[in-house]
Request: fold
Amino acid sequence: MKNINTFPIYNCYIIDKDPAFAGTLSSYLKNMGIFKISGVYLKIEQALHLLNGKNTIDFLFVGIDNDNLSGFDLAIKLRHSSRFIVFMSEDPDYALNAFQSGGDQYLMKPLIFRKFSAKVDQLLAKDIQNDTFKFMLNPDGNSLRIPRLFK
Reply:
């Protein structure tokens, strides 16, 4: 069992053509206290070029609509190195394709922090079950963050 005095920090990458949305998502992730934002990209081509070959991507947050490549194309190419892929779109019709492309979660825009947090907690709960983590401490070292599944 892992030491309760440590907490996981998940690296994450955000790919979305809307800089305002990417900023909001970054704020949400920072508020959760367990994410390191390793990169924010507005173009899928740029993200693919820079991320292809990375050893491990914990969370990949991908907007579906982008220039020449779609978020689906990116997910297929990076599935092997990504622990979790979360698709985001304003269009509910993309949900099925998101899961067929290897996505682990699908979020509707605009994001509401409570719903966003609940969806991410579901993925964290999977990670906890797979990695035998039972507790996670926030960076302040005082408060426990237990995914909603365990509350």
Helices lie at 19-32, 44-51, 71-78, 95-100, 113-131. The longest strand covers residues 82-89. The CA atoms of residues 37 and 91 lie 25 Å apart.
